[in-house]
Amino acid sequence: MLMIRQAWRNIFRNIRRSVLTCTLIASSLVVIILVDSIINSMTGLMVKGITETIEGEAQIYHSGFRDQYDPELYISDPKSIISNLDSDNEIKSYASRVIVPSMIGSSYNSDGVVLYGVDAEKESNTSRLQSAVIEGDYLSGSDKELILGRLIAEKLEVGIGDRIVITSSEINTNQMIQELFRVSGIVQFGPKELDEGFAFINLSTAQRMFNIGEGVHQIAIRFTNPELANSPDLDIYKTLPSDTLEAKGWLALQPGLGAMLEMTGLSTLIMGAILFILASLGVVNSIFMSIYERTYELAVSKAIGTRPSGIASLVLLEGLFLALISCFFGIIITVILGIFLKENGLSLGVMEFSGVAFPDNIPVILTLDQFVNFPFYVVLLTLVAAIYPAIFAARIVPAQAVQKAL
Amino acid sequence: MPNVIEINNLTRKYGKGVAEVIAVNQLSLNIEYGEFTAIIGPSGSGKSTLLNLIGGLDNSDEGQIMLAGNNLASMSGRKMSDFRRDHIGFIFQAYNLIPVLSAAENIEYIMLLQGISNAERNKRVEEMLQLVGLEGLGNRRPSELSGGQQQRVAVARAMASEPEIILADEPTANLDSKTGASLLDMMKGLNEEKGVTFVFSTHDEMIMKRAKRLIHLRDGSIERDESNNNA
Amino acid sequence: MLILRMAFRNLFRQYRRTILTGLSIGGGYIVFVLSVSLVEGSYGNVIDIFTKDSVGHIQIHRKSYREKPKTYLTIDNRKELEELFYKESQIISFTPRVLSMALAYGKEKSTPVKVLGIDPNLEADVTRIKEKIFTGDYFDSTPNADGYYKAMIGSSIAESLKINIGDELILIGQGAEGSIANDIFIVSSIVGNENSFDKMTVYLPLVASQSFLSLSDEVHQYALLVNKPKRNLEIAAELQETLSNLDVAPWQRIETTFYQTMQADRKGNNYTLILIVFLVFVGVLNTILMSVLERTKEFGVIRAIGCRPSKLILLINLETIFLTFLSISISLIIVIPMIYWFANTGLLLSEPIDMGGVMFQHMRGEFSLNVFLKPMIIVFITSFLVSLPPGFRAARMTPKNAMDFN
Description:
Chain A is an alpha+beta fold. Chain A has helices at 2-11, 15-55, 65-68, 79-87, 120-126, 150-156, 192-197, 203-209, 235-238, 250-253, 255-293, 295-303, 308-344, 368-394, 398-402, and strands at residues 58-62, 91-105, 110-118, 133-136, 145-149, 163-169, 176-187, 198-202, 218-223, 245-249, 346-347, 351-353, 356-358, 361-362. Chain C is built from 13 helices and 12 strands.
């Protein structure tokens, strides 16, 4: 008990030094929590941007379809899959799609797009299509409707109600087909790639146009619990009615995204390591200085019979207190900054990674486990840093230390 | 001889309220050029405070100090520094040499502050070392010198700037009597040879015997001021 | 200079503290250099790849073509323009291009493609197209015996249309006056792989593309390389002044999303660096303060014998500057080989990362004077600033208080 009191008071003997040391430790804690939050929130945005915009959390498709988007590789009989999906509790929603690269033309211009035939109702529960409509109306199911990305609409110089010609070829016969539509809505997702390269019509229209009966190219899926999307144990990944079909979660569908997540994880780790090294150098230094100042005192206490282990424990205790005080203030500062950043976001400028556009202000969301895990590591690492000076202090030879000059 | 130090009604207090201590109390004193004076008295009588005030190391609460015709109170920090550099030499009880500099460099340091040329500095360093009897030890660091030798370096340092006044706060207190005596003889020689004014604070009998004037201090005031004709 | 010697010797009075402080300064410097080098190098590498792969450093179009690319919006004063390019010493090479969209038919399938008409000789001076030929030969502008021109196709076109070298390729598009454009070409080579930006591009000889789109000797675009890529923006602005009736755009305005993302990423990086410098110097401030505090008595003596306060501040400044100098010198020995390795070998990511539409796969370092100098200057300035407060503290005390200090 006495030793604890002694260690505690020692910290306040040189307030300036303790304040600076605590500033160092506390800043490291604040920085690492914030960096972790920012990276979490960016990866969260990225994953959500991909899974919630169009792609879904998982997809079922004909093997090989995703390689070239070859329209011939379609699921000709999706009924049994759909009934499986309907009865699966883990699945929140799904949307079947026909996907055919086509030419799109107005009276002014023409371009290539990926034409999506979608089920209006199911799509609205699965992707952001409905909420991305910025002008006109969402699909209602009638035959001549077409929704265009904002940038492609600008390029074609068309507005709501204007005529659009889709030129493509029938999937099984490869005969050229042309069909007239009218723009019923314009959507804006954000990323350029989506807004300039996509057009949407009703699923039934697409199935009729391309003459594929009930066939679809892709079923995008959202889960009740999105965390499960990449677990290989899910029923939908295991029980596919045919060998020619594939079902994959978003991580397997987007290897680039996986690499990116890995890299950001690694950079948090590197950042943490750098911060730790810098902070520990500061801690070691500061504890050494306090030992030097007290060489005489420590020597005397050793001379009157304190064991080396006792002195080492005293130094370690001081390190512990420094860490605890730092964590206390670090947490308070982080919470204050967190509240500020939650409201205002962190402004870095416009960014786009893996086809996901980030808002100018990235929201920074703090979670409870960050306030438990990181302070724990900080305390632990500070104690590790204090070991060297503690051993040094324990080895002070009383006779030598008592002689001290200017 | 004219006065080099004129002190009028000098007062210095420390602490506040019940803890207030009057270290120097309405003290007036004149010291002439070339004196070899000891300020003596029991500990707590105000010797060190008086010396610090004379040297401009501490600020007074009341009264006036004139050094070689200059009023200390009217000087700014920078001017005070320069004044100390050019007019006052200090010798401390604990020698207080700069540990990272050699004996010669410690002596040279103050001349460097004065902006004396390189050749002149080197010449004077040698002179000073000789004067204090440390020829050939100029390259040693303070930690490689004995206490007496260190204090001799300190005397040389104080003399190097050719000041009018040398203030010595208990210069022999850390030395054995034999070393102290030889140091004092050396200082006395310098006083007579070069005419530098020496003011000591001390309770060392040996200094009292050699000082030409003894100022007895008690509770911050002069109790007795006597000439020592035997010195 | 005695004061220099004093400052230098003071560093070795507490060599353990000096080493620890030096380690954090040196470590901070190394992190700083690495991060500057990697950011500049990796982006430099990516920029070099895409500017020399297709974009060029500067592009010139008819006004409003980039917003609404219409076939009839062409550059028709070619001769005049090309003379200017030859005369302008800052331009190393240029290439004219015709751009369009078309539907491509192979034996039985069709797909929308990008059509790029190029001058086979000039294009090879600007881009790496010749090196990118996967199979077959680089084409020329002469038609074969039947009067058919040659075409080079992206790898994905070859795969999805299932056509190979020597096969016929039919393109159907829209001519300049809105007429239907329709021509047959012979595939002479396949370009790039499935990751190339031009996997869905058909390259035609310039003359062939002009006749396909019913254009006379007009083009849509000039891509230029300049001698000083870093002065890209200025050169583009100068050119724009001369060519006031055309639209001169540096790559920063062509690849806007990538450019913004890069800028935002750099901004984020700068925040991180500021934090690291801050943490390093909280630690350094701590040690300098301690070393000043410890020597308060000594400073009192120095002041007592007549040293001006400003000299004392200088002494403390000098000590810190020396320490910084030593730390940086030693760090340079470590960091120069590291940067050299990153600049010459670099790190290959397992999967490319899509950054605003530009693929990013290589972590490269930049090896230049700036990479070492800029962080050095910042570290020196910071260490100088950090040594001021302790210096002032030492200079402010009255000599008596300083000498009494314990």
